[in-house]
Amino acid sequence: MTYPVCPSELILRNTRHGHATRQFALATVGLVALSIASTSAFAQDVAPPSPAAADAGPASGGEIVVTGSRITRSGFSAPTPTTVVGIAEIERKAEPNIFNVVNQIPALAGSAATSTGTTSSSAGTNGRSTLNLRGLGANRTLVLLDGQRVIGVDTTGGTDISQFPQGLIQRVDVVTGGASASWGSDAVAGVVNFILDHNFSGIKGNVSAGETTYGDGRNFNLQLTAGTSFADGRGHIEASGEYAYNSGVGGPAANRDWYRGWKLIRYPIGRVPAGSPLNIASPNVSNFLLAPGAIITNTSNPAARGLIDTTFGAGGSLARLQRGWVPIDATGAQVSPWMIGGDQNSDEGGVADLDTRLNRQTFYGRVSYDFSDFINVYATYNFARVYTNNIAFLSTYKPGNLTVHCNNPFLPAGISAACGTANDTLTVGTMNVDLPSIQVENIRKMYRWTFGGDGKFNLLGTEWKWDGYYTIGLNHITNNNIGQTLTNLYNAAIDAVPGPNGTVMCRNTVAQGQGCQPYNIFGTGVGDPSAARYFSGTAWLKTRLRQDAASLSFNGEPFSTWAGPVSLAFGGEYRREAFRQQADPCSYTQCNNPLLLAENNWFSGNFHPSRGTFNVKEGFVEVLAPLLKGEKTGDFDLNLGARYASYSSSGGVWTWKAGITYAPPIVPGLRFRGIASRDIRAPNLNDLYAAASTPTGGVVGRFGSVTNNVIVKNPTLSNPDLKPEVSRTYEAGVVYQPDWLPGLSVSVDYYQLSLKDAIGTIGAQQEMDLCADTGNPTLCNLIQYWTTAGGASDPNGSPTLPVSQVTNQPPAVVAVAKINLAKVYTNGIDIEVAYTKNLSDIFDNVPGTISFRGLATNTLHYKNDPGLPGQPITDIAGQNSGSIAKWRLNVSQTYANDRWDFTLTERWFSSGVIDNSYIECQSSCPVATATAQTINDNHMPGALYLDIAGTYNIFKREDGRRLAAYFKITNLLDKAPAPNPSFGSLPISNGTNPTLYDTLGRRFVIGARFEL
Q1: Continuous H helices in 262-319
Q2: Euclidean distance between the first and final Cα of the chain, in Å?
Q3: Where in this chain does the record put each TonB-dependent receptor plug domain (predicted)?
């Protein structure tokens, strides 16, 4: 909730991500032996708390301070809007991961959750919980723990919220504006700060279990927290542990009736029948170059063309593909491998998991000691292990790109005879269902130690407060791609020839010497698992990250003006980031096998080793000067801040901010606020040093008359010469808390953010199109391609492989106008309304309170300017195929008394489109171009989700002891997601958008909390 009347300070204190903690008891003993720690011993006077502050509960030492500035000052209302999620709201939401609570704030868009990215095999992002403000990316949203940086989840940045000590989180502050001057790099979109309870005494716990209405997605969560004081209250120790489990949710085709195989079929530019749309969104779309067993898609023998569309089923049985509608151009030639209707056996969209299987253990410990009234020291330790596993897609699919000879002994005799001689060949596609599905297994272990202190001293008649810490963070990450196939060894195994005495053998003599056993792809249930071991295995990447960070800051009021004391904060910080990566040898070497290539041998995965490091030294200063104060003039405060950062990788850079708040005397409770800032995101380890990853993707290859849907490798290269991104943010708003209606808070804020020199890559398809349209050598030289024999598409639509690799390289800033995403511009409005009322003030003898809270974000524009010649500026606001809906709304109503409470929550986003640049038409369509594409149906509806939750206090005492049972039903009406047809050569899309829509359905949670 926007926190307009509280001081805008974030106290830099404890964080602790830990070390080996297989047994919580042993870790606790180790912590006591190693560390000393502190909570804030220095309470400050603060303005009366708003409802959000009351909900948040007291901070350390009884103070309520909110992230947004480095200044500590009574009564200061921050110019930067801040949303607060307090402990009471966290408990009422009854989620197994606090990430789910925070992510419901409308200003957050595009966050990565366990239900997103489940079809990815190479990125290693599966099962993460990373926050994304304004849709600008997790690496442009700075996440803090007690005001301290936390090591990233990988080299790309972003922080996994699930690794935090959830049992001790007291509140969460979300600063929805640029804050680099206060907190440094990555705070382009804002800051999310998780505040822990440093003074907890007693024992408390939380246990919950749940599942979906379909009987899957079973989850269990157990939290236990304990704390106590010692040494007559001068010391304090606390520890918190958690175990969480989620069984995941299988593919949508298995138990979700909303799945209908929605995809987007696209004609090549210039080959669209007159009056028809370029893009066709439709259900029941599948690829006729694939079949569960195998399908013949082409033949080198013209006399054998009748074999095309022959499929191989159970045990090698033969059938004929029933083709649906296939797009053809004006000449009658097929122009796409996708069909609507007909046999749908080749659709893999219903296979990939909807939610990731997860197992999480965390431990956090903290010990503090007040050596005097002026010095408090502390140490923390945080350990987290997160294991995730999900099915990304069904085995190794080969869409019409395999070649087999007619004398292959696994072919039925009739097919072999009709095929031709031993020198004749068939082109075949297969889903390889006899091979195991490709599973993505991620194991992340985070260790974090923090040593710090805070205190106060007097200098030249001024009381100064100091705060400092040093933290070491380690993250050990393993990404296993289980069930991958080595392409050349697979090709050798399926290339079978008759052997002596009626045996079958591999054609390649080198493969024979390696133990190659022929593998049968002609049917289902025919593949020999022992033969598959020759070409199957696990592609893996191991990443070791280290972060060292130190900070020392000071706060004081050295002098006063006519309007009051001037507050000053200043300090310095140092941070070093480093990583190294190891990969399986077959990903990046020939792997001591003459049949393999120099790199990229797996079907997907293909990781590469790399390493790198950088450091940054920073100094900052911030001042708050009251300029007006009085009944006639009103209250006017000026907040200025600046930071200089020197990066070893890119040099020095300045950030700054200037903010004002003004409370006019005419309308009590009214306050205006505004801020302007210059913010940065420095290139991270992945941008600078990461070796090329090689994910598999689909593009339309455009070379001469060849226009085919093809699968390509799409490596993305790092660039050590990159410079920081720079953004400008402007915000202006009004806050109203009227005296005539106590308990009401209303705020409206306008924001505008412009980001230039953005680090990124253009997409593979865009690179392909730009090369074909402009001939730009910078782009075309990055595209390596080859053609099969004949070099042209088959009249029946079977494509060749004109593209083997499309490479995107993010250049230095000087080259950003050529191939980088040059600029981003977004603006919009944030609205918040909150009201709390005691019912006894309205009705005598009616107990309890009612509260209302509404948060809304209206994204007016979100424009991407690629900075490329002839390329348009695109606006993705309202594209519900992404994450930026025009309107996002979260409203909660709660009734609470001493015995029970009940909360109803409505989550809503507005309707939108697939793509704002599309022109919708079913007939009489205009001629489509690359920048003015047409589509038959561009609409994507909005969605309203209802959640209910309740708590019953079995007992609750004045001293805080309690035992409570609770429940939660998410997506009460079991609303299904809208179709989100996507385009490309990959058959694995499930045809919806889990980033915006709920794909899991109705979910139940029951649980109990206790505090002793």
Answers
A1: none
A2: 30
A3: 77-191
Whether residues 135 and 176 share a domain: the answer is yes
Which pLDDT tens digit goes with each residue over 675-722? 999 999 999 998 888 876 655 556 665 554 444 555 566 666 777 888
For residues 893 and 89, give the distance between their C-alpha atoms in angstroms, rounded to a whole number. Answer: 11
CB 967 within 8 A of CB 952: no
- The alpha-helical segments, DSSP class H, found in 646-692 are 685-689
**Rounded Cα distance, 699 and 782, in Å:** 15
- Whether the per-residue pLDDT at 546 is higher than 90: the answer is yes
187 and 109 belong to one structural domain: yes
Shared domain check, 524 and 417: yes
The band of 69, judged by pLDDT with boundaries at 50, 70 and 90, is confident
Tokens of residue 999, six digits: 């794909």
120-174, pLDDT tens digit by residue? 776 677 788 999 999 999 999 999 999 999 999 998 888 999 999 999 999 999 9
Per-residue confidence (pLDDT) for residue 308, from 0 to 100: 95
Radius of gyration of the chain (CA): 30
CA 1008 to chain centre: 30
Q: In this structure, what token pair is assigned to residue 326?
A: 């296939």
Q: Which run of H or E residues covers position 11? A: none
Return the beta strands (E) in 486-563 as ranges. Answer: 496-498, 504-506, 536-561
Closest among 186, 146, 4 to 80, alpha carbons compared: 4
Find the mean pLDDT for residues 928-942: 93
For the beta carbon of residue 49, count every other beta carbon within 10 angstroms.
17
Report the run of H or E that residue 148 belongs to, with start and end.
strand 148-149
Average the pLDDT over 814-834 and give the result: 71
Strand partners, 783: 806
Task: Write down the pTM of the prediction.
Answer: 0.87
How many C-beta atoms lie closer than 10 Å to residue 861's C-beta? 15
Q: Are strands 141-145 and 190-196 parallel, antiparallel or unpaired?
A: parallel
Residues 212, 301: one domain? no
Q: Rounded to whole angstroms, what are the CA distances from 950 to 891, 903, 1007?
A: 16, 6, 11
**Strand ranges of the sheet holding 279-282, from the earlier edge strand across to the other edge:** 263-266, 279-282, 934-935, 919-920
